[in-house]
Design brief:
The chain has two helices and eight strands. It is mainly beta and 160 residues long.
Length: 160
């Protein structure tokens, strides 16, 4: 199973705005999401998160600014090679301004205006909880169309 990262860049305490990227190509194209991707051989999860944010939106994040807020398992029985465990981080500090890349077009959204209808179906079940201060773990199983969530479970975890 692949290991992946997902970074949620937010402004405000508690978060009032979130930076999401509209995926222009590759896995998840046509959807809004946080920034992240697969962990490459030899990388830690944190290094991969820092690298992916830089590649996808041009921002410099330090490992110390990654706040672990979730661990999510995504299962695609119709395409098991897509199965992944995602390590989710909240990011409140970075250097630079968001820039569009070949892969992602960044847009700020108020937390009350998150475009869930243009995101992965499972996101509605965990994202608002993370933005409200919870740390979560979850499991999502997708149907034959690789879009529809057929089963899901999200639980709160204690913060460390």
């Amino acid at each position: 199973m692949r290991i992946a990262t997902l970074c949620l860049l937010v402004r405000g305490e508690p978060p009032e705005e979130i930076l999401l990227g509209f995926k222009k190509a590759g896995f998840g194209a046509g959807k809004y999401n946080g920034f992240g991707g697969k962990v490459e051989p030899g990388e830690t999860v944190e290094w991969a998160a820092v690298r992916e944010v830089r590649e996808e939106v041009g921002l410099r994040v330090s490992e110390g600014d990654l706040e672990p807020v979730g661990r999510l398992m995504f299962l695609f029985p119709a395409n098991p090679e897509w199965d992944k465990v995602g390590h989710v981080f909240l990011v409140r500090r970075w250097e630079g301004e968001p820039v569009e890349s070949a892969e992602m077009r960044p847009t700020w959204f108020g937390v009350e205006e998150i475009p869930y209808e243009q995101m992965w179906q499972g996101d509605v079940h965990w994202l608002s909880r993370v933005l409200a201060g919870e740390r979560v773990r979850g499991r999502f199983t997708f149907g034959e169309d690789n879009e529809t969530v057929t089963a899901w479970k999200v639980e709160a975890e204690e913060r460390r």
